[in-house]
Design goal:
With about 100 residues, this protein is mainly β. It has no helices and 10 strands. A hairpin with a 5-residue loop joins strand 1 and strand 2.
């Protein structure tokens, strides 16, 4: 799930990525072009068991990302704005900050 918060006075969007990972997943990272494709650990929310990552991104752009579970399994976000083919024969999730 992806939540976006637009600011009237700023040229950026607060984006929160949330993932309900399988119970076997003890470690989840987001890997994205806005992070130079380096895995960034997501925080596990104790109450819900969801993994969460919050960032601010420039308005009116699109960004590719995927989730990496336990350092071995790739997963896309079912709530992504769309999907785009990657160079590895799979798809990446895409988040748009267009309003």
């Amino acid at each position: 799930m992806i939540n976006k918060r637009y600011f009237k006075t700023k040229n950026e969007v607060e984006v929160t990525f949330e993932l309900e990972a399988p119970e076997s997943s003890s470690k989840v990272a987001i890997v994205a072009d806005f992070l130079d494709w380096k895995p960034e650990p997501m925080k596990k929310v104790a109450k819900t068991g969801m993994f969460k990552f919050k960032t601010r991104l420039p308005k009116d752009e699109e960004f590719q990302f995927r989730y990496l579970l336990n350092d071995v399994e790739w997963m896309n976000d079912p709530g992504a704005d769309k999907y785009i083919a990657n160079d590895f024969g799979d798809d990446n999730s895409l988040v748009s900050t267009y309003q």
